[in-house]
Amino acid sequence: MIREQKRAAVLKQKRELSGSTTPPRVIVLFALCASVDLESLANDLSSLLSKDSSTVLPGFGIPTVASSEYKIRISVLKAPHGDLLSCMEMVKVADLLVFVASAMSSCEETASQYIDSFGNQCLSVFRSLGLPSTVLFVRDLPTELKQRNEPKKSCSSSLASEFPEDCKCYPADTKDDLQKFLWLFKEQRLKVPHWRTQRSYLMAHKVHVSGAGDFRLCKVEVLEDPLLLNSSTNQDLMGSDETQDVKV
């Protein structure tokens, strides 16, 4: 009985994540070192996803892609290296936090050659906030297939203590690398920080309602005050601005 209930819950979650009305999954790319090129990685991911259709939400500039091949909507955000507050806000709404390391990095300012001082600071803050699902991308690996495994393994083992035990490591240089990741990500059961399920939040196109789940934002309406302070003049004394419907 319990097993059947768990199975039903997993199937329900899969349907909710792949349905036509589900909000985009938010992937946040975070560079562990300033030398890591997030721009090229974001472009590589977007080009794979946008073979069919690509949409940038008007007014917000958030790149959101709907892919019929992977049957998923994804928003890819790049955490700005050096801006702690912006990185924190992005991690708060991330469905998947992708830590990106370069096999060629050499950060002499810290004990790890792959993480600089800002990366260390952010990792400490992210842990205190509560991490969502995480993965590690390793870039700048050798092009020869036989030579790639050793530097990837070295980077992964060096950083293993920094991340949760279930944080998997993926090479992320080639189209094939990213395609394999996307197919796995499509089926991945994402972990949600406990605090997020207890608090409602809004991220431009996605609304989370505690106890109800995630919803796509279709429009925002400003309703007329049903209890006007001055009914004779049909105005609210708290403000004289005209009330209008605002659609997003």
Description of the molecule:
This is Putative bms1/Tsr1-type G domain-containing protein. It comes from Medicago truncatula. Pfam families: Tsr1_G-like. It is a single chain. By secondary structure, the protein is of the alpha/beta class. It has one domain: 3-Layer(aba) Sandwich (Rossmann fold), CATH 3.40.50.300. 34% of the residues lie in helices and 21% in strands. The chain has 7 helices and 10 strands. The strands form 2 sheets. It has a 7-stranded mixed β-sheet, with helices on both faces. The chain has a 3-stranded antiparallel β-sheet with strand order 8-9-10, with no helix packed on it. Strand 6, helix 5 and strand 7 form a beta-alpha-beta unit. The C terminus is likely disordered.
Quick summary:
The chain is α/β, with parallel strands linked by helices and 248 residues long. The protein has helices at residues 2-18, 38-49, 84-93, 117-129, 145-159, 175-187, 194-198, and strands spanning 25-31, 54-56, 63-67, 72-78, 96-102, 133-139, 168-171, 201-203, 206-209, 213-216.
Helices and strands in order, then pairings?
Elements: H1 2-18, E1 25-31, H2 38-49, E2 54-56, E3 63-67, E4 72-78, H3 84-93, E5 96-102, H4 117-129, E6 133-139, H5 145-159, E7 168-171, H6 175-187, H7 194-198, E8 201-203, E9 206-209, E10 213-216
Parallel strand pairs: 1-4, 1-5, 5-6, 6-7
Antiparallel strand pairs: 2-3, 3-4, 8-9, 9-10
Helix pairs in contact: 3-4
CATH architecture descriptor: 3-Layer(aba) Sandwich
By CATH reckoning, the class would read: Alpha Beta
- Which percent range fits the helix content? 25-40%
> How many domains, as an integer?
1
How many beta-strand segments? 10
CATH homologous superfamily assignment = P-loop containing nucleotide triphosphate hydrolases
CATH topology name, in short, is Rossmann fold
How far apart lie the N and C ends?
A: 44 Å
**Which oligomeric state applies?**
single chain
Structural class: alpha/beta
Rg, Cα atoms, Å: 21 Å
Main beta sheet: strand number and arrangement? Answer: 7 strands, mixed
Shape: globular
**Which stretches are low in confidence, meaning pLDDT under 50 for 5 or more residues running?**
56-60, 233-248
InterPro entries: AARP2CN, Bms1/Tsr1, G_Bms1/Tsr1_dom
Domain Bms1-type G: 23-191
Protein name: Putative bms1/Tsr1-type G domain-containing protein
Pfam family, one: Tsr1_G-like
